[in-house]
Amino acid sequence: MQVQHFKIRLHNDFLVEDQQKLNAFIKDKNVLQTSSTFITGVNEFWSVLVFFEGIPTNENKEKSTKTTFPSITNSVKLSEQENQLFQSLKEWRAAKAEKLKMPQYMICHNSELLSIVKLQPKSPEDLTQVKGFGDLKRMKYGNEIIQLLQAC
Fold this sequence. Notes:
The protein is α+β, with helices and mostly antiparallel strands and 152 residues long. It is 43% helix and 18% strand. It has five helices and three strands. It has a three-stranded antiparallel sheet with strand order 1-3-2, covered by helices on one side. α3 (80-100) crosses α4. The chain starts with a strand and ends with a helix.
């Protein structure tokens, strides 16, 4: 496992640039978990740690025993019911991010939400099959996500 630190400055001159750097970094990484802390003071900012796996070699792929649901991109076709579920998950994520005062991507990425829609997990443990959804995310958000899935 590797780790990369990002500083998301809140000043308008830097916010978009810092977010773009983070998004560009995680785009092609297997993100295992993220951790963020809001730093207060003269210059307030989010300190973000991204824990990720490097690009696996063929040897590492053979050793891996965990089966994960493949990452899904925004171009995937969704049925009407799946699209409604995806929108519900996005609304949950937005509300959760606002409550925790953190960026939405720190809760879940769209690709993770799309994978959840396609996988239809029945328990929080099933969520660990979603690429990028490790034990920490499962413990933090798993029960809420499963409840939302069961309600839809």
